[in-house]
Queue: 3 jobs
Job 1
Amino acid sequence: MTDKNNLGAFDRFRLAAAVLVIAIHTSPFWSVNETCNFLLTSVFARVAVPFFFAMTGYFTDFKSAARIGKLVVKTLAMYAAAIVIYLPFGTYSATLRMLLFDGAFYHLWYFPACVTGALIVFALEKLPAIPAFAVAGTLYAVGVFGDSYYGLTADLPSVRAMYDFFSGIFSYTRNGLFFAPLFMLIGSALSKRELGGNRFAAGTRFVLSLLLMTVECLLLKGIAFAPHDNMFFLLIPAVIFLFDFLASFKAKPRPRYRKAAMWIYILHPIAGYWIGILTTQLGIEDFSARYSFLNFVLVTVLSFAAAFGIELTRAVLERFCGIGRGVMGRRQVNQNLAHKLYDQKIGIPKGPDPLAGCKGRALAGFGRSPKRRVAAKTKKR
């Protein structure tokens, strides 16, 4: 099992994955080169969301109902906050389809997908590994043939009827039912294995998987009409090898990066909205299409500034006001402060505790009955 206290590379890649999501939504090379834009947004950047799902699976104990409940509550709270944030930017019809599958805004589908996927994996973890992966893999295959492979199966009446039925429930098969479970299950399985043994081999496998996924995407683009380009079969090995590659970099965790990456994901459409308003006021029409790369850079910079501004504010409030620590966190801080003040008052020097040996001997018999303490002393003699 990989040491989860030494996975700082994963926290750093969360930021990179958030940038890749921005790239998908802004098409950086649209005004430069269509092929480059396709390779970035339809191939390489597609590892970002599966990576987030796999990270959720990696750090979640799906056999614990309490942990799953905590994950669901936390995700739904973030989803509710995001919905409130986006209320001024559009009018929504609060339907079950929107809330459970499509998301209140075009990128917020991730949150209900995370909840649905976690609940499915929680049920699958009760099965042996092979049947669990068979079920998750089947769901993913159904999703793929309703997404990037749809043009190959749309002429089959029974298949078309099935996906027409699905379209009445959700807009995409890229959701928590078909997309999320497999990658969460992969993340959970990888958490039980030792990763990062050979950086060069892992990096080579990751690059090869990306190249093969490029071939897959180009073939689909050339021979079939795909209404969407979110799900590919070769995304599966790409995410696995990406995990193995990142685990080879030993670095301390960066919890602030994790939270900042989520804020970047949530807020980047707002950054794009205000950039569009500002450029229109300046008399620049179709700024995002005519200057796509500059638009991508500006959206990224504003999103990072907003996300790290929020995290900096949170850190200041935690440090000076105790907000966000929770009851146990504040209690521990108060106890540490009390001990420091007491040590200063009686003049105990800094450094190793001079009373450590005495404390250890005094606590050795703590909690024993008098008879047991006497028996312990007799045994030592």
Job 2
Amino acid sequence: MGNTSDALEELLKELSHQSTRERQITTDKKGLFLGVYAKHPITNENIPVFVANYVLYEYGTGAIMGVPAHDSRDYEFAQKYDLQVKRVVKSAFGEDNLPFEDDGILINSGFFSNLDSKSARKEITAHLKSMGLGEPQVKYRLRDWNISRQRYWGTPIPIIHCPSCGIVPLRDEDLPVLLPTDVSITGHGNPLESSRDFVNVSCPLCGSAARRETDTMDTFFDSSWYFLRFCDSKNTEKPFDVSLVSTWMPVDFYIGGIEHAVLHLLYARFFQKFFYDLGMTPHKEPFLRLITQGMVLKRWLSVEKLLDKLGLTTEDSIDDLGLKLTLPEDPECLRSLK
């Protein structure tokens, strides 16, 4: 039987008053052992089951496998509650600090030991599938997205608020909505609220006095599909012509900061798939390759240190550097650059 004590009820009550965002950023890891164990599907080991404040029901099935040696949050939790920390991935460069969160070589993993992380993920998934316990799936973590902002810059939201008709969308012939120029930008409040001509309008349905929506769209909303608009930026009849998009898309390289990998990139892919379902583009994906700034080598490296290890100086030519960089990799040199 699981732990149904007052302590559990108290913890659940506390968690019910915290938002998902608060639980994501919490530094104080709290949990309670339920008195039950899960069976490891491959090793048959008993795994203690905890309720924890940093585990979110929106993620996966809401019940996850903790990996304290290779996840900083799980590591903090295991340290606090004196749980076993079993290293199953080691660094190819000899790092031994925990938690180790990069890819590496599997250890303490039975017949999966000595595989690299990428190969191991495929092999373990295939093994679970052969046992009838799982299969590979692609999961999208697209969260609810509040696209409105209380600021001047941004695309106006074409909505009218009528006391009689409620929320009314503008007619196509009334588009586009242009931002007014008679605004007061003070640094406080929404500048669009200061333009009476912009705010005070007639309802498109009943003609009575109404108010225009003054929030503008988040700029991510526009940049999530502007690569498609770039293919046909002069079109005044529709967002873009399918034939032109078919010619120019998809984009060869997407280059952006690390924060884009779970924000703009995911939204842009959502828009692309939305347009694909509408038959407005023949491509399911908008980008062929992703290069994340600062993550090409997964670590920062000073130019001076690189030149020193290559036996070069700032006085050497670019041709000398090119020759050095095209030589076969020296593992010892690579390790020393860390």
Job 3
Amino acid sequence: MDRDPIATIGMIVLLTSSGDFFSPGQPAHFRLICSHSVPVRPKKGQKMGGRPRRGIDGPDRPGIMHRIRRHLLSTRTEINPMTNTCTRLLIALLSCCAALLWPHRPGLAAEQTLQLLASTFPIYQITRNLTAGNKRVQVALMIPAELGCPHDYALSPQDMRKLTKADVLIINGLGLEEFMGAPVQQANPKLRIIDSSRGITQLLHFGEAEEHDHDGHPGRPAAKDQLHEEAETPNPHLFASPRMAAQLSANIAAQLARIDPAGAPLYAANAKAYGQRLERLAEACTALGQRLRNNRIVTQHGVFDYLARDMGLEVVAVVQGHAGQEPSASEILAIVATVKEKKAGAIFTEPQYPKGVGKTIAKEAGIAAATLDPAANGPTEAPLDYYEQVMRTNLDTLERTLGSN
């Protein structure tokens, strides 16, 4: 009769749990009756020379002992051992086979909980959409949800604790997480990192969405060294473009599938569905861009450069050459002059930054001011379609502010 290999190996492990089983004094014939609590039951009057090994059914081998017991309880097996030498060689061979095969049993990896840690709110929301329905995965956000772009962020003790508990860290990439580095690997040397921007082409560099004059940013005098440094720095704000966000989503799903093969079909299905929703949103952006009466705008900083490219918008000036760095009085005057010269339709601030400077520029230049949200931050318990809601609100704001045909 054919036997389950696991049950056969387990039976031998149970039988050899007694240190005296293969001692010379043992009789040549045994009848094994397996019970839940006694792995090896000798004949009446026979002593057990050793103690049963414990831990077989421990956390390293969950469920295996249950299968062995269930198999043995359903059958009586007579074991006729050979000579001690041959039997020991057989056990050694079976033990090696079990050791080689055990780590590759699919049920073990599938039962483990995967702890994912997203670096930023946009990446957190994308990852939540990709892992929806997978109960073995837990997704956490490292920085506070209300923070926004972490250009000047510094790791906190709480962040370090999150890193030590994570199996996988998912980042935006392209230098957005400048606050990370050696401390991350020191906190968790085994941490695996998914760079969501890896392999994405058609990247923009800071200022590339704007028209430049010989002094650098329109209306923003800048040193040549600073301009050279910015020209070599890719713009990391891919998430603010639905089309680029779809590429981030596909990247994360593919890398997650390699780390967690058991969840690969779900990640692929979710990435396809989410990507289709983002592509429809991207098409709506492109269609609106073609209808706008005035496509020339001023933005807070370079967060909307990819969206501007998708919609055919011309960013004639930025308020902050570096996020969080307010312009000086002379720079504000230069921006106002550029706005008038280029006949920009509006200035768009962001909810993550103060609106005072933007309103001042709008007043001095005689243009409208409104707010566009790049979805860089949001509520802690945001719905899965939060990004889509925000972007459709942005489209309404652009059409209302710039007019459409």
